[in-house]
Amino acid sequence: MTAQWLSGQTRSGKTAWLIDQLLSLAADLGGEPTRGRALLVFAANGDNRIRLAERITVATEARYPVVTTTPAGFIESEITLFWPLLAQSLNLSAQFPLKLRPENEQELATRLWQDRLNAGTMAVQGWLPAQTVRRALDFLQLAASDGIPAEDLPTLLQQGIPPGFAPAEVWQSIGEAVLEWQSWCLNQGLVTYGLMTELYWRHLLPQPMYRKKLVERYCAVLGDDLDEYPGVARQWFEVFLDQGLPAAFTWHDYGKVRLGVGADPQALEALRSRCQETAQPYPGEDSLAYAWADPVLAGVQDPLAVPEVPAQMQTLQATSRGEILRLTAETVADAIEQGQVQPSEVAIIAPGLDAIARYTLAEILISRGIAVESLNDQRPLISSPLIRALLTLLALVYPGLGRLVDGDAIAEMLVVLSQDPQPQEEVPWYERIRIDPVRAELIADHCFEPDIDTPKLLPVERFPRWDRLG
Q1: Which end of the chain has the lower number of beta carbons within 10 A, N or C?
Q2: Beta strands 276-280; 247-252: pairing state
Q3: Residue 457: which residues within 8 A CB-CB, separation 6 or more?
Q4: Which pLDDT tens digit goes with each residue over 221-255?
Q5: What is the average pLDDT across 165-191?
């Protein structure tokens, strides 16, 4: 089977086609050829990978060995698995590496580059020192994602960033700092995603032994939404194609949303010429977009025209917000009770839905015996009691924040931060510290001292009847 390539739009059935290709490949390669080898399936990011893995499990009934991953996850797992090979070729420490989280990466790089930062050799106009460090690390990651050696950064930064930000000496210093950071991390046994990416395409992938092991472990490769992948992904896909292994890829004609932030669609699209291409430009016939897209788009483009609205599309009108919410919920409930639609097939899309509207819709539907689940519920962080408590605590630690805190916020902080999310049963009840709202208000009323610069909590003995606190 030759490599297959499907290009299409959103909801055109690309992922379903990819799963069909996987089933076909598994059936064709079943038996002895797949013994000890798995089908390698890529998704653009972690969320897509989870959904894709669930659909594959249902479709295959877990009968075939399938490994689902993302480009970043694949690089990390390969670097970890073949670290002894890298250690031998690069003369590194034999110990396995420790991956740094972004915040730790930022802190350690700042310490390493402190002399450069103090001397101003990395100073870029308009950038704070922390921004300079973060962007220098991001430059390394972006370059590694596209297969660009870190040594080329000074030249590329001068060419890509408009003049006036910094002279050439600054970009040269940033490039030298990045190389210093790479060397220091390897000597310490530390890796970051940018460093792992460069180690993979520059030192691990070219090794014949690794390429041999790679094709021995996987019998086919599939990739969903290749337009969102980093440029280096093309290199390992070409390894599979060069060996003549089966492959299947999907491409979003109007995707490329990660262009410039780690993805290189142009590099991945070069694989199209090596595949047998199938076009599926239109949404699936079972998709709402198949019937509704053209009339809705015509209405948006020409508001004065009267578009031919599909018969299935109804308009609900009311004079008040509460009435329109009730009318919407009752219309959904009536359709479900009449058997026109199943509850699992209903989605209420409401941008900017606040807590009152969400509660109103849910209560009406639940009262009619219809279960409701809130999906992609996006609320501001300040709506969380724990976040509010932490912000209040910051006002007691850092000066100049006294205007942002009051007695009620202090009481809420005491209640929230005194709750143990996982109570330890072995701790006696009389040693557990939990402050209820009543005692919290008493403490806030008598022990909180407001101040514009340094608000503080005074000792509890300031309260005449502090024994009442328990």
Answers
A1: C
A2: unpaired
A3: 396, 410, 443, 447, 448, 449
A4: 999 999 999 999 999 999 999 999 999 999 998 88
A5: 92
**36 DSSP 8-state letter:** T
Look up the pTM and report it.
Answer: 0.72
Q: Distance between CA atoms of 348 and 374, rounded to whole angstroms?
A: 9
Beta-bridge partners for 280: 8
Residue type, 445: D
Structure tokens at 253: 């004609």
Q: Residue 301 is encoded by which pair of tokens?
A: 């483009």
- Of 266, 275, 207, the C-alpha closest to 236 is 207
Over its C-alpha atoms, the chain yields an Rg (Å, rounded) of: 29
> Which of helix, strand or coil describes residue 254?
coil
- Beta pairing partners, 279: 7
Q: What are phi and psi of 368, to 5 degrees?
A: -95, 10
Q: Measuring CA to CA, how many Å separate 6 from each of 39, 96, 346?
A: 19, 40, 30
Token pair belonging to 73: 């996850």
> Is 90 exceeded by the pLDDT of residue 285?
no
Structure tokens that stand for 328 in this block: 């919407």
- Distance from CA of residue 421 to its chain's centroid? 26
CA dihedral angle for residue 407, residue 410, residue 415, residue 417, rounded to 10 degrees: 180
Q: In angstroms, rounded to a whole number, what is the distance separating the alpha carbons of residues 284 and 68?
A: 25
- Tell me, what DSSP letter sits at residue 259? B
Query: CA 364 to CA 327: how far, in whole Å?
Result: 10
Residue 233: burial class (beta carbons within 10 Å; 0-12, 13-18, 19+): buried
Q: What is the DSSP letter of 284?
A: P
What CA–CA distance (Å, rounded) separates 169 from 180? 16
What's the sign of the alpha-carbon dihedral 187, 190, 194, 196? positive
Contacts 24+ apart (CB under 8 A), 345-354: 347/375
Nearest C-alpha neighbor of 197 from the set 138, 136, 272: 138
Q: Which two tokens stand for residue 22?
A: 């996987």
Cα distance between residue 21 and residue 12, in whole Å? 15
User: Are 177 and 136 contacting, i.e. CB atoms less than 8 angstroms apart?
Assistant: yes
Q: How far, in Å, are 229, 381, 417, 443, 457 from residue 401 at the CA level?
A: 44, 19, 20, 20, 14
